[in-house]
Amino acid sequence: MLFDPSGLNSAFDRMRDNAATQGKTLADVQAADFISEERKQGRLIAPSSQSLTEAAVALKWRLRRKPGVTPAKELARRIRARGTFARGWVIQKIDSEKFRIRIWLVNQSAESDKVDTAHKASDKAEKIAGGRFKSRLDKLASSITSSF
């Protein structure tokens, strides 16, 4: 008995067409999920305006600031800038190959490496987003292979 690969080839062609028409690639979905989780972790570690005010009062308004800036203005600037770490994350590049997905994220805020090193926000986000990756991969595979 001879094996006829035409049925298998047509099934693979349908799978490839289904994968191409699904819209976003899995790498795009995973990158968006990771950056969303990264921003959420950044918002969690941001100080509240109340804690900043309490710290200023505890220091008797002796805040480090630029020359000519009043302590009240410096406190207002710090309150305004408190979510900068969370907002600064952007997707720089997504590289998707056969068996590997690489996502480059950049935080455009100054001193973001110090904040991330101190609070390990990116490590926490990676653990949470990585746990959801397998279920999304299974869901995508079932939607692609459902036609045969």
Task: Characterise the protein shown here.
This protein is mainly alpha-helical and 148 residues long. It has two domains: 26-46 and 86-148; 47-82, no CATH class. The protein is built from seven helices and two strands; from the N terminus they run αααααββαα. It has helices spanning 6-20, 26-45, 49-58, 71-80, 84-87, 112-119, 121-144; strands at 89-96, 101-107. Strands 1-2 form a two-stranded antiparallel sheet. A hairpin with a 4-residue loop joins strand 1 (89-96) and strand 2. Helix 2 (26-45) runs antiparallel to helix 7. The longest helix has 24 residues, at 121-144. The protein is rod-shaped. It starts with 5 loop residues before the first helix and ends with a helix.
In short:
With 148 residues, the chain is mainly alpha-helical. It is built from 7 helices and 2 strands, in the order αααααββαα.
Give unreliable regions as ranges. Answer: none
Computed CA radius of gyration, to the nearest angstrom:
24 Å
* Oligomeric state of this protein: single chain
As a percent range, the share of strand residues is: 5-15%
Summarize the biggest pleated sheet.
Answer: 2 strands, antiparallel
Q: Biggest sheet, strands in spatial order?
A: 1-2
Fraction of residues in H or I helices: 55-70%
The count of DSSP E runs of length 2 or more, i.e. the number of strands, is 2
Q: Separation of termini? A: 24 Å
